[in-house]
Records
---
Amino acid sequence: MPQTKFLLDESEIPKHWYNVVADMPNPPTPPLGPDGQPIGPEALTPIFPMALIEQEVSAERWIPIPEPVREAMRLYRPSPLMRAHRLEAMLGTPAKIYYKYEGVSPAGSHKVNTAIPQAYYNQQAGIKRLSTETGAGQWGSAISFAGNMFGLEVRVFMVRVSYDQKPFRRSMMQTWGGKVFASPSMETQTGRDVLAKDPNNPGSLGMAISEAVEEAASREDTNYALGSVLNHVLLHQTIIGLEAKKQFEKAGDYPDMVFAPCGGGSNFGGVAFPFFADKAAGKNVRLVAVEPASCPTLTKGTYAYDFGDTAGLTPMMKMYTLGSNFMPPSIHAGGLRYHGDSPLVSQLYHEGLIEAVSVHQLATFEAGVTFARAEGIIPAPESNHAIRACMDEALRCKQTGEKKTLFFNLSGHGHFDMASYDKYFAGQLDDHSYPEELLQASLANLPKVD
Amino acid sequence: MPQTKFLLDESEIPKHWYNVVADMPNPPTPPLGPDGQPIGPEALTPIFPMALIEQEVSAERWIPIPEPVREAMRLYRPSPLMRAHRLEAMLGTPAKIYYKYEGVSPAGSHKVNTAIPQAYYNQQAGIKRLSTETGAGQWGSAISFAGNMFGLEVRVFMVRVSYDQKPFRRSMMQTWGGKVFASPSMETQTGRDVLAKDPNNPGSLGMAISEAVEEAASREDTNYALGSVLNHVLLHQTIIGLEAKKQFEKAGDYPDMVFAPCGGGSNFGGVAFPFFADKAAGKNVRLVAVEPASCPTLTKGTYAYDFGDTAGLTPMMKMYTLGSNFMPPSIHAGGLRYHGDSPLVSQLYHEGLIEAVSVHQLATFEAGVTFARAEGIIPAPESNHAIRACMDEALRCKQTGEKKTLFFNLSGHGHFDMASYDKYFAGQLDDHSYPEELLQASLANLPKVD
């Protein structure tokens, strides 16, 4: 009977990250300051260590992974590449379906892959504390886990409404020693100002970012950590695709199409960029970013300079955006509710080198439940987006008889998202379409920089 | 740097289960019927398929694992054997610590190892439905997952208070197609009778067992499935210890001591029995069952014939027992709250061939948090018992300088037990000692059969 799992030994954890910048036909667009002029690396030193800033602007193809980072990753990496025999049979497709399972990390998602090097480089730079924000809690969990490994105090500003509604993500962070504050909090001036006016303010991701950045910028011993969007974050995630390529070699196969969820872009970039290297060298492989129909940044947004946060405190980045004031509907794939996208992913999409599709919420949960019944693992709602798009292609193959090799990133498990599955089973999930008028209004407010 | 993970290829999933009966110095004691006379296999045919009944009474050393069972297990087996380098360093012990991680199964615990063969043999026997009970939900999850793999309808009677308090375990079962009923339910005469008198009855495990057995006994198409205690369940779990022995060979090591949580006995039997085979052949290895101080069946119970359930409907089995009416305090390791113990484990303990210790609840959570901070994985409360006992031994080695090799079964993750960790962090967990008067009262009521 054909093989199910393609495993690597821990000695096969990659020794370098892959930097897609080296293979892009054009150099990346620079971030701009408030004056509309490109900013240099030094603008980032108050909140990031120099090692990460260097990675942010590097054009080197291969960047070495420090040995202590590889060592820390051995707790859960290499992650398995799985052949979904049972899903193929259930769908009756001639396509072959593979998935990389990143839910094996202690925090349960791929976010740990960048949390570990971020914690390491900050510790090396003498930093004692990391501050960050979290919404659904996946990133907060990952950085709490990683900070603990390198002896850093981790301070997580968790949107109050999530803090109250998701107590188990909070306890997970606390188990690893993370300090979790409901945001707005009394820890920062931003938080105190908000609470003075409105003691019951439910918080927002934008507000939590402001608290975390305020703390990092105002204290020498504290830096800020971000879980997606930036170049160095996508760089760290390429470990997923690099491992997958070795595993496909062992399987004697190679994907025709690669699918990954796409919110801020680190999930997609992590799995797809190493395959882009092959594509740049002439190989025929299609790379598909899958986003929610309710927050369709690539498929319906504009390619323009915009802020990364709602308050306009970050540098402006050229990216696909729905406008920094765009408020996506409250879908359950919290990790994909971002108005913008990674500048690297955006540029590749703009140049027609990668593809994007959007899928509706109900269809993603239907795909997730089908997958769970076939393969056992209950996926995170974000991962269900990739599963949906991959299953749709497998069903097309069933029509055409094509024996394509399909591959998706199963970026995390859904053990902390069962309330969403509950609502799905109870018929209480909205199937948000995209609110066109709101988009137009939001896009009309993009900053003018050209 | 020394190796962390010892992996097996899926072709190395064992082809036989190990039956400890073949190496026991005395034959197992028979179960007794209501008349105090030994019952034969035929008494079990209304609720179990013949293949499982044959395993229940077999004395063969090796029992073949059917190929479809091995194939189904390839979704998550072989499970990894891990060397806990970071925990060793944190404790400062010269001991080497290894653990087998069973939380990789889709349902998150070792329970799946018996759920799959039970579902398979029932399907082979033409059974269409399985009924079972669940308290905390681990067994209900495992059998829902396994039943789905073999096309069986799974009906889980979940104690109402758990049904209401643990909605996420319930949604997990539903994701795999399990039908979950709050017990007492309107599905059975037992349930209807209770509800007629008391519509708000919170239910109990004993009541849920009665509902599940009633359904199995009264319908030709339905059998009952049990998650621990019985010989065939322990047999199926030996796959854990058998894999571990292969992995220790690859590690070039062998345990001096093996630790596992012990409630009904399948966790302990699963990991320890294959090492008992070596012990029976003269090897020096200590096998330690770890139980809660609040439900200390082996360490404080009596070795006698007793019923398996509170209502006295099951055959009587000779085992260590606290009395079938003993009500253990409501600790968070729900899987270890059982008044009796596997007859096989009990007999080996009675003959001095294995050891047992009891540990207190707070100390188990302290151990679990220490483990999570060292090794990443957040353990199930049941698993924390083994971790505690293993850590205590590692700390003794620190005093004596002994370089023992210690091994424990990390039987599951704690992703659905974060409410318990929450209470631990909030200082709200009781540290139950054992209520001696209640035990004496309970033991005074053991059935008289000799």
---
Amino acid sequence: MKKEDNSFVLRGAVVYSGSETELMAYEDAFVVCVNGVSEGVFTELPEVYKALPLTDAGGMLIMPGMTDLHIHAPQYALRGSYMDLELLPWLNSYVFPEEASYADLGYAKKAYEIFATEMRSGATARACVFATAHQEATLLLMEMLEESGLMTFVGKVNMDRNVPDYYAESTEQSLLATREWLEAVQNKGFKKTRPILTPRFTPSCSRELMQGLGKLAAEYDLPVQSHLSENLSEIDFVKELEPDVSCYADSYLRAGLMGKDRPCVMAHCVWSDETEAEMLKDNGAFIAHSPESNINLCSGVAPVKRYLAEGMHVGLATDVSAGTSASMFAAIRNAIYASKLRFRLYDENTAPLSFPEAFYIATKGGGAFFGKAGSFEKGYLFDALILDDASIPTARTGLSVSERAERFIYLGSEQLIRAKYVSGERVF
Amino acid sequence: MKKEDNSFVLRGAVVYSGSETELMAYEDAFVVCVNGVSEGVFTELPEVYKALPLTDAGGMLIMPGMTDLHIHAPQYALRGSYMDLELLPWLNSYVFPEEASYADLGYAKKAYEIFATEMRSGATARACVFATAHQEATLLLMEMLEESGLMTFVGKVNMDRNVPDYYAESTEQSLLATREWLEAVQNKGFKKTRPILTPRFTPSCSRELMQGLGKLAAEYDLPVQSHLSENLSEIDFVKELEPDVSCYADSYLRAGLMGKDRPCVMAHCVWSDETEAEMLKDNGAFIAHSPESNINLCSGVAPVKRYLAEGMHVGLATDVSAGTSASMFAAIRNAIYASKLRFRLYDENTAPLSFPEAFYIATKGGGAFFGKAGSFEKGYLFDALILDDASIPTARTGLSVSERAERFIYLGSEQLIRAKYVSGERVF
């Protein structure tokens, strides 16, 4: 076997999602990475891998790197502020002014450096990232993320209506700038950073803009990310703006921004009705479940358990800065919290998310948007975290690996990540 | 003015609760402590205090120390485990076996040392603490807390029914052991650690035990802590066990464990009806709002905003280990989260908690159980935290002190506490 830099073996207490509901846990096992791809997990190391360099994590937890399916890089500086508002006033009062400041490349550099540094040091291996409407600042962000070690989709945001003048684009400008941005990205030759079309959401994108973006999606064969059915006032607004769609999702579908051959991520889907859920399912759309965001903006809670039961694609997202934390560990906790209150206070027919289910959406669920990612099963892109859970003191002994994983997610933090690998490359 | 060790001045960006809804914030101010008590906040230092030693926090945030109104010390080792259960099965499967292990003083020492060390390093200045049924281990915990710098009430737990044999006491044993424990505490001469009577909750305390404890409360003039109306199955169980009470709270009231002259803390009060809320109000009972616990065990969410509007005493609590985190910063966040989902999903007539309101219950609200604590107003016991919020990077500049405080609570952690004072004594 050819020995390469990204071919190696890790040894430790291994945990990953076998399925939506099942956590696979090994007290002492070997995870094998060959050319950036997992060969699987072995309790005894097969002879054929014994020549590979081995890192013994000394019994520490080894789990897959996580996927943040929805995060706004230019809102990172706003985290933890003005959390007493709902979606539309919050956007108008704080988010649009902040994003507009990325016209200044000096500010963009300062702010995106902080973002990229923190993403690098977190549990996130892969992410779908919103930038701003500015093509230069978006390119700058992509350059920084290319250096961060993460695998990302990054989108220049499009919007031509219901946005303050200081930040709005005309339909034509928006499409032209997007094409220029796509051409510039092609010239950059990024290896880890890919473009994704990013109509902000229907309230801020005219039908013409959506159709133009749909054509670009086809021409450049691009995935799409946007927002969907987050807040009840937003949904009413969409009905008013687009009275002829069958549901909010249809405003994307009819423009070619969602479809069986058009990978897309829709953030939130808190209030999707049956028509919409079916449309998402039929078109293989990914739901970026953003629990902390949906709590902070009083949006509600998506019925994740039901979406999973229906075989839909669900991933987890931090949605900074409607979510205050870019921590995927916190996002897992928040997904469980939100599902429990949804169950107790709103709909006792939809059970809360169990720990294995929340862990699944954070890893394998969202990872699927990037191909095979978020698991250690054979053939998966090798993303891994080594976690020092023993640094969280307890008097108890003899915890199982599953118990240790649950405990780490509740009590751990990014400071306890001792190593991070993305596609077999060691990030730190 | 006599200069003492616990007379000094702090300078920095000062924030505290003026009232339930109002945050007082000073960009650059002096907080004066004389003999452990606040003299107030001054934008210019009065001449009379200029001889006191001054610590300049270099613009860091200075906020009051916090009160954790309800935490179970012997459950600290269980944090972050088995969070997929509701109250009664969780108690029987995990909590009772864990607590029973404190019969072993060696285990108790190991576990309580971790607890006391982490309480010392956190934002909590004052706490109401449940121990176990064991008098020796409870004394040991009190000795450790006496050394921790915190001001605490600590209770030996009482329970004589519906508890597994390996952990139950007889009524007589329970009362005798409590008296012995109280006598032993008196002989210890603690300065910071006071006893509090602690019937676990009505399901595990017979009427005879409650009445015996009520007599002890009167004889030793003791406060009381217990649980109330946390979970719907628990409430049904109480109705079955005590069919002649007017509400769950009445089971404490009729035994003299609550009353106008009997300070008491009741954890949860998630499902208190009008009768019960009125009884709590009339008797000046403190509600220990435990949002993370109430989420984790799918209990529900207490209508804190309504309780505050009705002029009831509400403090905040972590309720480890039904709450996974002993962090009061996390508890403030969780109080806001829970209130927002309660508002959106259950009762749109009760508004969510604002940041100032959640901050209030964490400081001045719960602090009132200890007298005047949790504020920098003149005459308050001087509990303070110095917080290094500048270590949380952001590209934004010119944030107000209120904005910095909100941001710190959402993004900060115990590691960023640079100094902690309790009653004017520097803890670290």
